[in-house]
User: What shape does this take?
Amino acid sequence: MDNEISLQSLIEDVMMLAKKEARGKPPKVHLSERTAELLLAIGEKPEAREVAPASAAPREKRDPVAAELFPSTGETATVLRELGGEDGESNRNRESELALIADEVMTCAKCPLAAQRKRPVPGEGHPRASLVFVGEAPGAEEDRTGHPFVGRAGNLLTDIIVKGMKMKRDDVFICNVLKCRPPNNRTPNPEEVAQCEPYLLRQLEVIRPKVICALGATAAQTLLKTNESIKRLRGIWHDYHGIPFRVTYHPAYLLRNPTDKRKTWEDIQEIMRLLSGEVIPEL
Assistant: This one.
């Protein structure tokens, strides 16, 4: 009986881990092949399936996240393998790769902006973020601190993430097309974009997000290589190197035009529907 309880406790612990990983992110969890095989073997034993106490809740009343990840004890390892999630080692590898890119940005001198900056702003956030926010370029406060989207505009973006999306800022990745501030916050020129965009592409290759949200017309026009207005770019899905791409207003614009916060919330809700699997854009 003690062994049966221990096995059941192990399964329940794995379920709890999966539930924590699923909150605010795609439900992806990875186990080593050896661990997966052990769990699969547990599921094949009748006694392991019968150890749950009689007072356990019926299947239809289980937590929906757990029910999705674990249709039955016997399918646990199979489901985990099919989900193809990440383990701690992979997570550290992504952090290391992003750190290497950030180090290159810190010493980059490919365009004249390097001579005028105080601090480059590589970007920051979760190495496995499902959502990446991309702005135009660092402003004065970002140039001073080296962090993206700080100050009043950054606080508004944080409110959108935390209060609106019910996520943590650390759950997403936040960066800009340019990693250095243009003088007087002018619009990036083609040479600067050509030198800086490869850093963004490499970051996206490491993170592999489910969706990108462009903040503001300049970021959207720069990445999509278009002159279309933000009014025409909003409200539809775009494709950026195979990643679903949504456009909304820049937080700094919303501070000046608060009536458009409602439109931004509509854009964010569509992103949330994609993250939850309700929307699958045709790219």
Q: What stands out?
A: Confidence is low (pLDDT under 50) at residues 18-32, 42-85.
